[in-house]
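S.,

Sequence below, as promised.
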Amino acid sequence: MSRTVIRGGLVITASDELHADVLIEDGRITALAASGTPAAESFTAPTFAADRTIDATGKYVLPGGVDVHTHMELPFGGTFASDTFETGTRAAAWGGTTTVVDFAVQSVGHSLREGLDTWHAKAEGNCAVDYGFHMIVSDVNPGTLEEMDRLVEEGVTSFKQFMAYPGVFYSDDGQILRAMQRSAENGGLIMMHAENGIAIDVLVEQALARGETDPRHHGEVRKALLEAEATHRAIRLAQVAGAPLYVVHVSATEAVAELARARDEGLNVFGETCPQYLFLSADNLAEPDFEGAKYVCSTPLRPKEHQAALWRGLRTNDLQVVSTDHCPFCFTGQKDLGRGDFSRIPNGLPGVENRMDLLHQAVVDGHLTRRRWIEIACATPARMFGLYPKKGTIAPGADADVVIYDPHAEQVISAGTHHMNVDYSAYEGKRVTGRVETVLSRGEPVITEREYTGRAGHGVYTPRSTCQYLT
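The prediction came back faster than expected:
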């Protein structure tokens, strides 16, 4: 039996903060005891013979982050996301994230199983941390609906649909309703990219015809009202189906208002936002010399005044989760495919390595409490997608996914020092307080005092139960 003891740190979970020592045996947390007590001292008694003792004095001891929205190796716009499962999960570990849930893609005319098998093949044996899959449903038909039942039974319990990207991922209202009805029966959770893609395509065509080709126009045509309209429509379709709904990458004040209204009505409707909407804005899209292309993602970055509603939604629990929508494309050779036509810029930003640090900065800045930080980045994503309490907390029986975090260290975010396989940082030059020091994944050190000690293949596929967050 392998034993690790973490001593002297402040253990922070979504519900508690306590100075406690943590005992890990064979990859799982087996006990916590208040630091300095006889129970804690017994963890390092000769009879225990710990293989590893980590001194966390003056540090935080956190659950590993759970990022439930990543896109490794995603095909998009004639290219592929630049992070592989190996590079992307290694970067996740560097940022204190120990579980990712990526999106397997069903192509139109193909089965869910084909898409899922393809993503299993991409990930298996390559991941530094544990992983699971959602299923993108691009082609709703009787066969697809039957497959949804089988996927839920084997631990793929969430299905993403798109009201955007006509001709690629788009589902119409009838297809969405049928999938929602099926999820209401089988316990799956529908995740929705809520933008009115049909209307957006009209506005894109009109903007290009006027010669408005720069990256900033990407944000201008993907209007906040079209996000809000689609969010409202998705909520009402879910209500008709009697199904829960999770709206991904919420970016606009008006969309938050739709979620808040639905939740006030008692509906099982949930919302996710991402660091880019909290820390970046439409000003970045307007950066000169095509630099704005670095920030093209969908939903788009909004004017700064939208940020206040997002922070408020996180505090009031009208938004429950912060994920990254990590989908990196290099500026040179990928983003520049859209020079002269913003609609051809691959949509997506890098961020899987930055989420935990940026949210700690939000704690420093007074937007969040420490426990709320852990709630929105670890515990609630794990509960929302059927991973809790295996993931997302520090408690007896949980996987020993643990981060030793230095809350006082300062760092400057930069492409020159990050570990994501992309040639720029969306947060270049941003100074933040707090930094990951050591990361354990199922008890094994993958980051040890700021050195990578993990390996491709350590991370394993993790089947999920159904949503544990329903009211």
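The mean pLDDT is 97.

Coffee later?
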